[in-house]
Specification:
alpha+beta, Hepatocyte Growth Factor, 3 domains, 5-stranded antiparallel β-sheet, 3-stranded antiparallel β-sheet, 6 helices, about 20% helix, about 20% strand
């Protein structure tokens, strides 16, 4: 059983994913070309010639095959379902996860100060300062000096420090809790974390989770746990407390929950009710000294 994913809810279907358009061109006369290999309770859907042209223009490629998403909402007509399925083959959303970079401390000169900015965690770089996991006390700067690293590298570096440290929040850096702690980073942009504990990095409303840019299917290639009885808030709590959960996808209008255990590095855009969130937890527990 596969699931139909579209801006409107479609229905359950059996067998394989959509036949690539190039294969459909070769295998069937134009007027008899089937939309897909899906079989419903009546028979195989037929794709009207006009929709074939629309699909070609939409995809700009004849090599795309997709899977689908199913929910329990009322199904639209077949014509609507066909159109929606084509629309759902839109390319990956291109959205990125962003985190704040802020000055590591006060600068003596206004010209040396930076405006805080949100930057892509995958490609942007900044330097590293760390704050106590307890939320109180003076921050620190790892030695040797980190230089500019990605957000994930910064997160890991703070977790590796002796004691119990994490990335500072933007508010902590604004309050100068890590000022003058080394490497002359008071004048540099430093990576921050939006919360001092477990929190969620979102791809925004209308996003669905994907393993990577080439992943066109629905559930982490069969690795995500799907539950049709769990609402969004319960889905988030379930992921928060589950070891190995990397994030979740839910819908705001129906009970639908995907618990992911593989890294979520990409997304696609569908209906506004969907949202894909990645989980960012606290540093792993350390062995007690002398254990």
């Amino acid at each position: 059983m596969v699931r139909v994913e579209s801006e409107d809810i479609v229905f359950d279907m059996k067998d394989e994913c959509m036949l690539p358009l190039a294969e459909a061109d070769a295998a069937f006369p134009h007027e008899e070309r089937p939309m897909c290999q899906f079989q419903d309770r009546v028979g195989c859907w037929k794709m009207p010639p006009k929709l074939v042209a629309v699909a070609a223009l939409t995809l700009l490629s004849a090599s795309v095959a997709v899977c689908s998403r199913w929910t329990s909402a009322v199904a639209p007509s077949r014509a609507e379902a066909v159109a929606n399925q084509i629309i759902s083959l839109a390319p990956s959303c291109g959205r990125v996860i962003k985190e704040w970079q802020a000055d590591g401390g006060k600068s003596g000169k206004a010209k040396d100060e930076h405006e805080a900015r949100e930057m892509d965690v995958e490609s942007a770089t900044a330097v590293v300062r760390c704050c106590p996991a307890s939320g109180s006390g003076k921050g620190m700067t790892p030695e040797p000096c980190s230089g500019k690293v990605t957000w994930k590298e910064a997160l890991d570096l703070c977790c590796e420090q002796p004691g119990d440290y994490r990335l500072c929040t933007k508010e902590e850096l604004d309050a100068d809790v890590a000022e003058d702690t080394g490497c002359k980073y008071d004048k540099e942009l430093v990576w921050t974390k939006r919360s001092s504990s477990t929190y969620w990095q979102t791809y925004g409303k209308g996003s669905v989770c994907r393993l990577n840019p080439s992943d066109q299917c629905c559930d982490g290639q069969g690795t995500a746990e799907i539950d049709f009885s769990t609402d969004q808030s319960s889905c988030e709590e379930r992921c928060r407390t589950k070891d190995g959960c990397t994030g979740y996808e839910a819908q705001s209008d129906v009970n639908y929950c995907e618990i992911w255990t593989k890294p979520i590095t990409h997304c696609q855009v569908v209906a506004e009710v969907h949202e894909c969130k990645r989980k960012v937890a606290q540093c792993p527990a350390k062995e007690p000294v002398g254990a």
